Amino acid sequence: MKVKQHSDKVSRVWPLFTNIDVDYGEGVHIYDQSGREFIDCTSGIGVTNTGHCHPRVVKAVKEQTEKLLHGQTTILYNSMLDRLTNDLQKIIPEKLNCFFFSNSGSEAVEGAIKLARHATRKPNIICFQGGYHGRSIGALSLTTAKSVYRSGYQPLMSGVFVSPHPYFRQYREEDVEERTRHCLAELEYLLHTQTSPDETAAMIIEPILGEGGYVMPPESFINGIRDICNKNNILLIFDEIQTGFGRTGEYFAFTHFNIVPDILVIAKGIASGLPLSGIAANKEIMDKWIPGSHGGTYGPNPISMAAAIETINVLEDEELVNNAKEMGDFLLAELQALKKEYPIIVDVRGKGLMIGCEFVDDNGNPGTVIAEKVRQNCLTRGLILLTCGPYNQVIRWIPPLTIKKTELEKALTIFTLAIKDSLGR
């Protein structure tokens, strides 16, 4: 399939993965200029959790555009900001009771790094292999999901140390806990050999790897990190940019591990597609941030705040978090049944509506080619999916949380036919 390209006036730094000349979106569907319908199981990379153009969010945005388009936060008091933080506090633990907002995930990660350094007066950050935290220089320095993100931009920010992650696809299942113990031992060793606790401000991790392959680590690994941070007076940052706002069947993925981070990074699903991100921490930590040392012109924008407030209301009123769990359980079971039928699918994993199917070739090597072929065959039939993982060998499912069982069944039928076509059956 030949993929359309933008004109030469648009930078090629944006790769284009479909040939859809988009006209509009509605619910879980995208429509092109000719009226063709596509089931969107990408959600704009985990953004449109309430579906495309949810009418309540659209109404809130329209009403706000007639009042104020931009109100700079250091110049004007805006009660919407208090409304937003109060609404967020309903779904975020009271321990995280103070917020800072910006526009993008990368900006929020940058803010979390700066906050951690000011709050602890320590310089270094530990990240974990396979994590994705953004593409601005500070956030990119913590990103190890794929080398393409870092290639040509190094040397990056100093003071960053990478610890192993128990990505256990290549290990036998009975080795999972052994691998976890090894990774935690390596983390302890890192603190004894490269960055001591006295100079380590924070550890940052995605509770479920996103771009790194949709991998949920064992609970013992996350709890082990929490214990090590507690023991060494190190802040724990959870990057929930992709996992937040109901994506995993809980409002936030840290709930699956029965812990609370010291700093929570949020974005993507917060405003149904409008640019907004933020970090949450305890007020005691936030109060150590030197006033005026960080900020931004646009965040939080009034229109984005209006969208976020209504997004949270929609998630609650329509019980979309519970729907994500129920539909995710159904999707996971159906994909695991496909795994038994097609050995090229070596693993199916995930939580809620954040599910990855990992492919291998006939020799058991990463199935980059077959995953891309399946993705393209799905697109031809009207299903939009994306790949991820270090070799782009994982097809990921991230549909809007509004998706119905009938819509998932149709998507699964297309996916099955695409696999058969890719294998020449």
Automatic annotation (TrEMBL):
EC number(s) given by UniProt: 2.6.1.19, 2.6.1.22
Pathway: Amino-acid degradation; 4-aminobutanoate degradation
Keyword flag Transferase: yes
Named cofactor requirement(s): pyridoxal 5'-phosphate
Gene3D superfamilies: Aspartate Aminotransferase, domain 1, Type I PLP-dependent aspartate aminotransferase-like (Major domain)
Keyword annotations: Aminotransferase, Pyridoxal phosphate, Transferase
MF terms (GO), sorted A to Z: (S)-3-amino-2-methylpropionate transaminase activity; 4-aminobutyrate:2-oxoglutarate transaminase activity; identical protein binding; pyridoxal phosphate binding
Keyword Transferase: yes
Catalytic activity: 4-aminobutanoate + 2-oxoglutarate = succinate semialdehyde + L-glutamate; (S)-3-amino-2-methylpropanoate + 2-oxoglutarate = 2-methyl-3-oxopropanoate + L-glutamate
Family: Belongs to the class-III pyridoxal-phosphate-dependent aminotransferase family.
Name of the protein described by the UniProt record: (S)-3-amino-2-methylpropionate transaminase
Organism: Virgibacillus dokdonensis
